[in-house]
Design brief:
Elements lengths: L1 E3 L5 E6 L7 E3 L5 E8 L5 E9 L5 E4 L1 E2 L9 E7 L5 E11 L2 E2 L4 H4 L4 E5 L7 E23 L2 E15 L2 E5 L4 E6 L4 E12 L4 E11 L4 H6 L8 E4 L2 E4 L12 E8 L4 E14 L23 E5 L10
Parallel strand pairs: 3-11
Antiparallel strand pairs: 1-2, 2-4, 4-8, 5-6, 5-9, 7-8, 9-10, 9-11, 12-13, 12-21, 12-22, 13-14, 13-15, 14-16, 15-16, 16-17, 17-18, 17-19, 18-20, 20-21
């Protein structure tokens, strides 16, 4: 948006998050505004006026960027605070030496810019996944007992493997989940493991997460009683010295699966999670193309994208 001021200056403004008149913004989202004034003169002041649902006008002083003698314009920045609901109208106003040089929100009769705050929170960022593989392991229980932090149980990996598209590895001896079960029945997963691929590459893995045993899970665990197939969710990260797998050192992953207590076997799928661009703020939730940080996925690696729905449909 732009307007001509009384002294011939040009006032232009835009939102850093790309909103236009009629856009929809999530509740609780601050809206940064950048205002430019040209030509720039010492003593110029920009006030951004805004109101919600036609209410009282509020004023924010825009902070100037350092002046650049090589540029004819000067930038001013301000952030409209988060709103919980309603229609927001705003208008930058230019002042010089105490004089108002552009229309005010009250004088204009209608805002030059505005947006609608959604009635319920909306997701802001697109994201996607690469399916890395499935971890399967047979466990051996070592009971430590009740401690101030919860019921301590060490689950040692007797044997296990990680198999995925283009990757196959075994779990090296010594891998253990140093778990504690809180009194609310939630197990806190703390896994340290080392993997070795068929070509001899070593990969160190660290897994944290939750293991939900139910509301009475703590009391039943004290009696060595468990649900047949409780769910487990972990957030693995990896480290390796191998050049071809160096991208794993930057990967944040997500693992979802279950534990079979009849066989003491755990199995979960591991996904490499990527963050995409911001969703459009015009009310639509389009699926976005995502800039995968791994430029060369493993052969046959499954990829997917998720839109910001309240319940994700995530499956390879």
């Amino acid at each position: 948006m732009r307007i001509a001021c009384l002294d011939g200056s040009i006032l232009k403004w835009t939102s850093l998050i790309g909103i236009d008149l009629g856009s929809t913004v999530s509740p609780g989202l601050p809206v940064p505004i950048t205002v430019s004034v040209s030509p720039a003169r010492p003593g110029q002041l920009v006030i951004v006026e805004f109101r919600v649902d036609g209410g009282s006008i509020q004023r924010l002083t825009a902070l100037p960027e350092p002046a650049d003698p090589q540029q004819q314009e000067r930038l001013f920045r301000v952030v409209i605070p988060p709103q919980t609901s309603g229609a927001v109208e705003y208008l930058p106003v230019l002042f010089f030496q105490g004089s108002t040089l552009s229309p005010t929100l009250q004088e204009s009769g209608a805002a030059f810019s505005g947006y609608q705050v959604a009635t319920s929170p909306r997701p802001q960022w697109g994201w996607g996944w690469n399916f890395l593989g499935t971890l399967t392991a047979r466990l051996r229980k070592e009971l430590v007992g009740p401690t101030p932090e919860g019921l301590r149980i060490n689950w040692h990996v007797a044997e296990g493997c990680f198999i995925g598209p283009g990757m196959e590895a075994t779990i090296c001896p010594g891998a253990t989940d140093w778990m504690r079960i809180r009194e609310d029945g939630v197990g806190i997963v703390e896994v340290r493991a080392c993997f070795q691929t068929r070509s001899g590459v070593r990969i160190y893995g660290s897994y944290s997460g939750v293991f939900d045993l139910g509301i009475d899970g703590y009391a039943r665990a004290l009696r060595d009683e468990y649900d047949p197939m409780p769910p487990v969710v972990v957030a693995p990260t990896y480290s390796t010295a191998d050049h071809e797998l160096a991208w794993l050192n930057r990967a944040q992953c997500l693992g979802v699966g279950r534990v079979d207590f009849s066989t003491l076997e755990v199995s979960f799928d591991v996904y490499h999670i990527e963050v995409g661009g911001r969703f459009p703020l015009d009310g639509s939730l389009e699926t976005l193309n995502l800039p995968w940080s791994n430029p060369s996925p493993l052969p046959g690696m499954l990829q997917g994208r998720a839109v910001g729905q309240s319940k994700q449909d995530i499956r390879p």
